[in-house]
Amino acid sequence: xxxxxxxxxxxxxxxxxxxxxxxxxxxxxxxxxxxxxxxxxxxxxxxxxxxxxxxxxxxxxxxxxxxxxxxxxxxxxxxxxxxxxxxxxxxxxxxxxxxxxxxxxxxxxxxxxxxxxxxxxxxxxxxxxxxxxxxxxxxxxxxxxxxxxxxxxxxxxxxxxxxxxxxxxxxxxxxxxxxxxxxxxxxxxxxxxxxxxxxxxxxxxxxxxxxxxxxxxxxxxxxxxxxxxxxxxxxxxxxxxxxxxxxxxxxxxxxxxxxxxxxxxxxxxxxxxxxxxxxxxxxxxxxxxxxxxxxxxxxxxxxxxxxxxxxxxxxxxxxxxxxxxxxxxxxxxxxxxxxxxxx
Length: 343
Description:
- By secondary structure, this protein is of the alpha/beta class.
- The protein has four domains: 9-96, HUPs (Rossmann fold); 99-186, Glutamyl-tRNA Synthetase, domain 2 (Orthogonal Bundle), CATH 1.10.1160; 190-237; 240-342, Arc Repressor Mutant, subunit A, CATH 1.10.10.
- It contains 15 helices and nine strands.
- It has a three-stranded mixed β-sheet with strand order 8-7-9, with no helix packed on it.
- A hairpin with a 5-residue loop joins strand 7 (99-102) and strand 8 (108-110).
- Helix 12 (279-293) crosses helix 14 (318-325).
- It is elongated and about 100 Å long.
- 21% of the residues are buried.
- The mean pLDDT is 93.
């Protein structure tokens, strides 16, 4: 020190005996002291190391329980020897299992960005509901006493028990998270879903659109798994895609290129005569038309939906699509479809 040579200050570890501590997850753990290196407390720059400062901070703040990852199990004896040196009470430890991610080859490794979004805000931006994220993460490495999976935040607080924490690492399963998210969406009221979907729909359709956004809950709520799927699901409302007339052919609905134009022409005439443009009025008119034509409902509905949407897979059927599009746009698309078939 007199010569000004840089130095550190270490804690001298015992050379004999062992250090034992109890963890609420892993139980009693004993480490031989001879395995512990004399830990640095003050660095050459005069500042304390993290381990030293951490113990001081926890004690002065009255921390009673230390909850951290299981990778810190091996450091715990060093912390405890510091507590003992100061004559302070040692806190209770709860070491949590690691969260792993599944690689493309099926192997698992510590969760990282390559596995997908790993931050809470990133997951929200990817279309997951905060409530679903919290629910899913709570079940990573923890199991309730029964098989319940869906919990509110209040229910989690009531049911959580450290005894249910697993010692084994957990795999962050994005498919499982999507399932949780879908369940939360299904359990929403139409009004709640409309509230969260409205900003997304407004941004997608742009200023000046005339859609009744409350109607989208009827067709989207049961089908959406993450909110970012919404634009792709409703793209045909914004603009009718360029489609091939072969889409009108469907064996299950018994439609072909010969009867599809007949059905479509009948639908157009039926809807032009309709006084009310409501879900019930549209439903009754088309069902009644199928009865008069003595064909299956699908024989009428399939070509009508294809002409209105331009795609075979849509959220909602022909009636829901007609209701959202409105009279003018629906008839315009149906007539375009008829022209395509007759060309």
